[in-house]
Amino acid sequence: MISCGPAAPGKDRRPIEHGDSPCGQLMDRYLLVMTACVDPSRGEYRLNRADPTIRLEDYKTALRFWLNLPDKRIRNILFIENSNYPLDSLESIAKQENPLEKNVEFISLDCNWYPPGGHYGYAELRMLDLGLQQSRLRKSTTHMIKVSGRFKFPSLTRLLDHLPAEFDAVADARAWLTLGKRLERPYVTTQIILFAHDFYRSYLQDCYHELELGGEESHMEVIYYRKLAELSASNKVIFRFPCNVSPVGFPAHRDRSYTHPSQVMINGIRAIVRQVLPNWWI
């Protein structure tokens, strides 16, 4: 365990690994990174879905989904948790319910903290940085697919099928309210976002420090958009998914699931717009 907030430091805990080691001469392309906070009670930001018991079940459901996903590109999974919650039940699932023998690594941290008045995105970005720095699986892969750990993404395979052979970052941007009105602060969604490891390490690592400054850019989604926009001229950055990759599960800030009829309708509109108006990022 690593203490990275104001709490007293604990003893170091090495990552727990299950499955065959991928270490060898050949590098795997993707590392699926599940970010998690089972117990958000220490954070100032109030969440609707805050019960650790319920959230743990969400993570179990999502982990089972990824373990059973037949896509051979998703064979390395890194689970990072930032509230120092016991992960025994998840480790058991990785051991006993892993029919495709995927490589699964668990990293437990104690860093569910962010500046007073700030957003929980700070804690997520910091967790991501610290977890990646410890990860064994990161060293044997070239790219990461960062997902919010409570969600399933059934369309991920389709997205990967449509991506170019080489990229530095792939995000799904939101920049327009209507055809004639642009958002004051464009952003990228971060439930799922992809990076080359080298690109992330060079340009995005430690960017959570910018959230300490407060001001208008108080959310990780806005910070990421600005940074990627600045880097897009000299790097291979994609700002629009070629297809919808909608999450399945319950968001933390409301009780209505992502499969609610109203959300399904919005997703359908977005799917049509991607085809007929690809430069209208809604």
Keywords:
282 residues, alpha/beta, Spore Coat Polysaccharide Biosynthesis Protein SpsA, Chain A, nine-stranded mixed sheet, 7 helices, 9 strands, 29% helix, globular, disordered N terminus
Quick overview:
The chain is an alpha/beta fold and about 280 residues long.
Kindly describe this structure.
- This protein is of the alpha/beta class.
- The chain has one domain (2-276): Alpha-Beta Complex (Spore Coat Polysaccharide Biosynthesis Protein SpsA, Chain A), CATH 3.90.550.
- It contains seven helices and nine strands, in the order βββαβαβαβαββααβα.
- Strands 1, 2, 3, 4, 5, 6, 7, 8 and 9 form a nine-stranded mixed β-sheet that branches.
- β4 (76-81), α2 and β5 (103-110) form a beta-alpha-beta unit.
- α1 (52-68) packs parallel to α2.
- The radius of gyration is 18 Å and the shape is globular.
- 37% of the residues are buried.
CATH architecture, by name, is Alpha-Beta Complex
Q: State which percent range the strand residues make up.
A: 15-25%
Please work out how many helical segments DSSP would assign. Answer: 7
Q: Which bin fits the share of residues in helices? A: 25-40%
Radius of gyration over all CA atoms, rounded? 18 Å
Provide the number of structural domains.
Answer: 1
End-to-end separation: 40 Å
**Average pLDDT level:** 84
Q: Could you give a short account of the major beta sheet?
A: 9 strands, mixed
CATH topology: Spore Coat Polysaccharide Biosynthesis Protein SpsA, Chain A
